[in-house]
Design goal:
CATH architecture of the largest domain: 3-Layer(aba) Sandwich
CATH topology of the largest domain: Alkaline Phosphatase, subunit A
Radius of gyration: 23 Å
Number of domains: 2
Mean pLDDT: 89
Number of helices: 20
Distance between the termini: 38 Å
Strand content: 15-25%
CATH superfamily of the largest domain: Alkaline Phosphatase, subunit A
Largest sheet: 9 strands, mixed
CATH class of the largest domain: Alpha Beta
Helix content: 25-40%
Structural class: alpha/beta
Shape: globular
Length: 557
């Protein structure tokens, strides 16, 4: 899970001193190694098998695509390799909802909607219209997303079908929810994150017991693995600890799939293995305190959103007397809200221009790199300005009936902030004018800023998105506390791999592109759920027909 969004209460990470070897640390290591022997034990279940169809969503938080590929090739992820890579269909160009942060994409995965519709703009977000700040980073608030979602979850959309949740914070409407809050909270506080992910696999046996007591097996199961992401933040996605954590997820995925395939609860089964974002290691020499630098350069009165505010209200004395409120998300994204005390019109525009001017100069790190990759600024109701190293572009948005279209307009061929014009195919696409959202996805899924144009245009349709957003550059960070992060619009953060396995799913096949908002429509299509009452109920689309028609990639030459 993204920083500032603990899965379980009583986290001690902000008080923990790195590098201190204590009796508690030694005990943690002993407990973790003792628990390893149990991670591969078969799960015993005995479902009735009376359902026509059932779907299982395996949600591994922070499963970085590059590390996944590297470890699979090294033979360290045998279950994902056998069951999904060779035994299913994969999409290696699946794009997260913008920004690539946990709660934004938990909402995307489980509602089929991006932040402008779900209302979830980060693990911490602010609504300037009401002065309401939501911070999911405490024991009192980490499940408040279920109060905040504007759109129904897949649990709710499935109506009378029974659904189950294993450990996921986003679970509104689930009939059965297994949390193991006490034991998971203890393990989390002790730093035994792999044991929490192991317990997600173990929870399937508990689900079996509850299902047989309470009217039968669910048609949908969501199984969530939060520990992997926490390890990525603390130790870096390139660390051996992260590799071992991904091996733990691999074992639990294998246990769950093998148990359900050996004793299927339904005639037809579909498994989806997904994640919410990538993971970028940012060493200390590539970290910069963005807020401190902004204060120095602009002389604006900038406040940072207070952490863990259960009331959700930012005091007027804190907010309205400032010029700017800043929220750093997962260390690689910064949202800047201009205070409502600044009148609409020229005054607000002047502050926005000062921010752009300040951030368009390099925010240097000790490694000599600019911490800021791309800036985006709201530019009227239908436009967004994009800035990078004095290069300028505009994103335009329009509607043609029920179809929204988008256009990308760089200042000049040599002044393209996103680098799209550097490629012949993308240059032709951009210069041909207006395109709908899915066309932009298909054209840019393999670009350095994938699917950026339609997503940033929709992002700024709600004031919760802020007035200016800064995305970190490659391997840079706006925080100075942690080894790893995410949240930028770059490919390493936003492009992930998703897998499908089950009835009607070709083996070893590949999809060219997808979005995480496509997962809920796909699962509902497989489960033959009744169509939504609203014709445009999702931002995503079902991938089921494309999966069925997918083919194996050509052999590499």
């Amino acid at each position: 899970m993204s920083r500032g969004a603990p899965t379980f209460p009583n986290r001690l990470r902000h008080r923990r001193r790195r590098g201190r070897m204590s009796a508690a640390t030694l005990l943690c290591s002993l407990l973790w190694w003792c628990g390893c022997a149990q991670t591969a034990a078969p799960i015993r279940i005995d479902p009735s098998g009376g359902l026509e169809s059932a779907a299982v969503l395996l949600f591994a938080d922070g499963m970085d695509a590059a590390r996944l590929s590297e470890l699979r090739a090294a033979g360290r992820l045998p279950n994902i390799d056998r069951l999904f890579y060779r035994g299913g269909t994969r999409c290696e160009r699946a794009i997260s909802a913008l920004p690539p942060i946990t709660y934004v994409n938990a909402a995307a995965l489980l509602t089929g909607c991006g932040p402008a519709r779900s209302g979830i703009y980060g693990n911490r977000w602010f609504d300037p219209r009401t002065g309401f700040l939501r911070d999911y980073g405490s024991a009192a608030t980490f499940r408040r997303i279920n109060d905040d979602l504007r759109t129904p979850t897949i649990h709710e959309r499935l109506g009378e079908a029974r659904t189950a949740n294993l450990h996921c914070h986003t679970r509104r409407g689930a009939d059965i929810s297994i949390d193991n809050t006490l034991v998971n909270g203890v393990d989390w506080a002790l730093g035994l994150f792999e044991r929490v992910d192991q317990r997600t696999g173990d929870a399937l046996a508990e689900l079996d017991r509850r299902a047989r007591r309470n009217g039968g097996w669910p048609q949908l199961i969501i199984a969530y693995f939060p520990g992997l992401d926490e390890i990525g933040h603390r130790f870096g996605g390139d660390s051996q600890r992260y590799a071992r954590a991904l091996e733990t997820v691999d074992r639990q995925v294998g246990r769950i799939v093998e148990a359900l395939e050996a004793h299927p609860p339904a005639k037809r089964l579909l498994f989806a293995l997904v994640t919410d974002h990538g993971h970028v290691t940012s060493r200390p020499e590539r970290q910069a305190d963005l807020v401190a630098e902004l204060r120095r350069r602009t002389n604006l009165r900038i406040v940072t959103a207070p952490r863990t505010n259960p009331s959700g209200v930012v005091a007027d004395s804190t907010w309205k007397r400032a010029d700017l409120l800043a929220i750093i998300g997962a260390d690689r994204r910064a949202v800047l809200h201009i205070s409502p005390s600044v009148a609409e019109g020229p005054a607000r525009k002047r502050i926005a221009e000062r921010l752009i001017a300040a951030l368009d100069r390099p925010v240097a790190t000790d490694a000599g790199v600019d911490a800021v990759g791309v800036l985006a600024m709201r530019d009227g109701d239908q436009g967004v300005r994009i800035v990078c190293d004095a290069r300028r572009a505009w994103v335009r948005r329009r509607s043609r009936g029920a179809v929204r279209q988008y256009r990308y307009e760089p200042d000049a061929a040599d002044a393209d902030p996103l680098g799209y014009l550097d490629r012949d195919d993308l240059r032709r696409f951009v210069q041909s004018g207006w395109h709908d959202s899915r066309a932009w996805l298909a054209a840019t899924a393999d670009a350095e800023y994938p699917d950026f144009v339609p997503q940033i245009a929709e992002y700024f349709t709600d004031p919760r998105g802020g007035d200016v957003i800064a995305f970190a550059s490659d391997a840079a960070s706006f925080g100075t506390r942690y080894a790893g992060g995410h949240g930028s619009a770059m490919a390493r953060d936003a492009r992930v791999t998703v897998f499908f396995r089950g009835d009607g799913v070709p083996r070893g096949a590949v999809l060219s592109h997808a979005r995480l908002v496509d997962i809920t429509p796909t699962l509902m299509d497989f489960l033959e759920a009744p169509p939504a009452a609203e014709p445009l109920a999702f931002d995503g689309v079902s991938l089921l027909n494309r999966i069925a028609a997918a083919s194996s990639p050509e052999p590499s030459r």
